[in-house]
Amino acid sequence: MKKTKIKVGILPNQFLKLDGTFDKDEAIKLSGKIAGVCYDKEGFTHLENEPLEKTMRRVDMTLNNGHHSVYDHILINFNLQNLPKILAMVLNNEHQYTTSEKSARYTPVVRDEESIITEAEEKLYHKWLDIFKVKIKEQYGYVYNDSKIQKLAQENARYLVTVFMPTQMIYSTSLRQINYIASWMCDYIDEVNINDLFELKLAYYMRQFIDELYRLNVLDERLMKNEKHRKLSLFGQNLDKKEEHFGDVYSTYYKGSYALFAQAQRHRTLDYQMELLNEKEYFVPSIIARDSVVVDEWLADMRLVKDVNPQGELVKISEMGKYDDFILKCKERLCSAAQLEIMLQTRETLLKYKKALEESHNPLASDILNYCNGARCTFPDFECSSDCKFKEGKILTRKI
Question: Which CATH number applies to 7-101+164-223: 3.30.1360, 2.60.460, 2.30.30, 3.40.720?
Answer without folding.
Answer: 3.30.1360
